[in-house]
């Protein structure tokens, strides 16, 4: 699970983890919470258990792009190392999830650069397994404003979507996170 700092990556994962289990730290403060890649085993929704053929779901929480302490290059290096180790352990990466906050005031040059690097990391062949996710759309109370932002974001993600990636939405709830997880599976 990748995306800018504060986009809701840890919140998405936390909303999928049962009470009493270790969850990622979630904070609405100014500083980034996630400092290391951390994997979490997720219990799949009953509706998809059969299709998984006894495989487990592992979500990897990553530090966000534009982190307060870690460079974007270092974050991507850590992801590449994790993927390399995972492949050697015969793990299959089912999907890459890129979360971006719809509530962001502007889509910046830095956002564009991060997306470009993410596209290169994925490669063309993996694009159908990429889920582009708009988070925090529930912060918009006016439907027209929310829809306008969704159209703008879809425009910024055009090359990914044209390459086979899907666009989804996630809000801060277990139900919304479960719906997104089903789309990922």
Automatic annotation (TrEMBL):
Protein name per Swiss-Prot or TrEMBL: AIG1-type G domain-containing protein
Keyword Nucleus appears in the UniProt entry: no
GO MF, one example: GTP binding
Classification via CDD domains: Ras_like_GTPase
InterPro entries for this protein: G_AIG1 (IPR006703), P-loop_NTPase (IPR027417)
Keyword Disulfide bond carried by entry: no
Pfam families in the cross-refs: AIG1
SUPFAM superfamilies: P-loop containing nucleoside triphosphate hydrolases (SSF52540)
Keyword entries, A-Z: Nucleotide-binding
Residues annotated as domain AIG1-type G: 1-143
């Amino acid at each position: 699970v990748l995306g800018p700092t504060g986009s809701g990556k840890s919140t998405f994962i936390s909303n999928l983890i049962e009470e009493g289990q270790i969850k990622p730290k979630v904070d609405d403060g100014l500083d980034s919470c996630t400092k290391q890649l951390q994997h979490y085993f997720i219990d799949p929704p009953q509706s998809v258990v059969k299709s998984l053929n006894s495989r487990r779901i592992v979500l990897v929480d990553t530090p966000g792009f534009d982190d307060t302490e870690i460079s974007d290059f270092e974050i991507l290096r850590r992801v590449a190392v994790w993927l390399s180790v995972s492949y050697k352990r015969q793990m299959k990466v089912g999907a890459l999830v890129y979360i971006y906050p719809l509530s962001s005031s502007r889509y910046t040059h830095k956002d564009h650069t991060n997306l470009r690097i993410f596209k290169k990391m994925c490669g063309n062949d993996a694009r159908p397994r990429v889920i582009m996710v708009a988070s925090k759309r529930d912060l918009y109370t006016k439907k027209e404003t929310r829809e306008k932002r969704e159209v703008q974001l879809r425009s910024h993600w055009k090359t990914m979507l044209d390459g086979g990636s899907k666009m989804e939405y996630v809000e801060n709830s277990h139900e919304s996170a479960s719906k997104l997880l089903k789309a990922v599976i």
